[in-house]
Amino acid sequence: MATQTRLPQLNSPFLVAVRKSGLLTPDDLVAVIAGSELEPDAPPMQVAALLVRKKLLTKFQAMQLLNGRTQGFVLGRYRILDGVRQDRVGMVFKAENTQTHEPVALKVLPTDRANDPTILRAFMHEVRGAKQVNHPAVARVLDMDFWQGTHFVVCEAIGGPTLDKLVAERGPLVPHVAAQLAAQAAVGLVHAHECGLIHRDVKPGNLVLLPDRRVKLIDLGLTHMLESPWAAVTKRIKTKEYAEEIAHIAPEQAWGCEMDARSDVYGLGSSLYFMLTGELPFPGLAPEMMAERQIRGVPSPMKVKPAVPKELDAIVQKMGAKDPHARYQSAREVVAALLPWLPVAQWSELGITEAEFKQPEQAPAAKPETKATGGGWLSRVRRLFGG
Fold first, then answer.
1. Annotated catalytic residue 219
2. Dist. CA 77–CA 84, nearest whole Å
3. CA 327, CA 331: separation in Å to the nearest integer?
4. What would the pLDDT profile of 91-108 be if each residue is shown by its tens digit?
5. 326 and 277 housed in the same domain
């Protein structure tokens, strides 16, 4: 029978790899092959294409299997669907919960860091804290697990480009748009800091733009795995890729000093500079940029883009001051400074109330933007943004 002539394909090296991976059962394979027009000796690429077309495998899974990989596709109750990126914390994958079919982002932790009991203990403590943060401007941490030697963290799946990719593709953002996004990220940081968490890696690559122009901060609670930029094991210190990864860290972080909420304020200020100008505050390789930020703070974005409002220019420079004492002392102060740019429609959802910021502490240069006029500062902001 036709079905029987096709069944020997199940013993081909490719389909043996598929079975070993745990992604499909033998019954799944029998059903799809028996109902196909494939020849018994069809090449592996053709069989893989069929499985992708039938949505039994993703393109990522198929390519990995064609390259001989059979492990790591299933971690506990999560199935790996696609690779997303490699960053300083670990590999990030698109995955799904096999029980609920919920899409998630899954971060696999580096083995050398996860095997250090001191680092792992501190990391687990921070992840537990991050699971308590439930806010529209922060990607939620859902789970942490261990499966066959692999530690991984499961987070809310966020659809949209990161701001570093957006700026790389489209160029600098319009000032009021960049300020809106930074204001939303600052609100997310307020809630994280109130939960006792410091992000440690606020950068455009950890800010995701959603289709409705909201922004979400990702990787909260996952940065205890980060190495010191000057760690002896760092082999990429003089590479362009490594420089981009640490382009927005605070001066105190660059030298392994103690960090606090003001370090995140610096990272957000540096990110805002990048959004406004399309350039890094301190270009070059890691040694040069790290030395430069010890000498001076984030430069004036107006010198690169004269259209940047002077009030916003002053805010960026205060956020990115090299001395932590010269910065805004909290994310809450940053929100107060950027409040005129925060979309009015999002205040209630993002936890902002008029009473909370009735008399905000401001940078001197930012006061004209929030000074009470006419019906008060709230009325003025509503007029500015059509609220």
1. no
2. 19
3. 10
4. 788 899 989 999 998 888
5. yes
Please give the helix or strand (H or E) that residue 26 lies within, else none. helix 26-34
Q: By three-state DSSP, how is residue 143 classified?
A: strand
d(CA 52, CA 330): 49
204 and 350, same domain (yes or no): yes
In the three-class reduction of DSSP (H, G, I as helix; E, B as strand; rest coil), residue 77 is classed as coil
Residues 208 and 245 in one domain: yes
Q: Kindly state whether residues 151 and 176 are assigned to the same domain.
A: no
191 and 321 inside one domain: yes
Mean pLDDT for the chain?
A: 80
Between CA 157 and CA 106 the distance in angstroms is 9
- Among the listed residues 245, 243, 307, 318, the one whose alpha carbon sits nearest the alpha carbon of residue 277: 307
- Domain region containing 321: 163-385
32-73 tens-digit pLDDT:
877 777 776 777 787 888 888 878 888 888 888 887 878 878
Does 130 lie in the same domain as 14?
no
HSE-up of 347 (CA within 13 Å, CB side)?
A: 21
* Of the residues 156, 184, 204, the one at which a domain ends: 156
Question: For residue 216, what are the CA distances in angstroms to 158, 223, 302, 384?
Answer: 8, 16, 26, 24
Contacts of 106 (CB under 8 A, 6+ apart): 75, 78, 80, 92, 93, 94, 95, 152, 153, 154, 155
Same structural domain, 133 and 266: no
Quote the number of domains for the chain: 3
Domain boundary, last residue among 45, 66, 87:
66
Question: In the numeric block, which tokens belong to residue 172?
Answer: 């600098």
Catalytic residue among 87, 201, 264, 313: 201
CATH of the domain at 148: 3.30.200.20
What is the 3-class SS of 210-271, one letter each residue? CCCCCEEECCCCCHHHCCCCCCCCCCCCCCHHHHHHCCCCCHHHHCCCCCCHHHHHHHHHHH
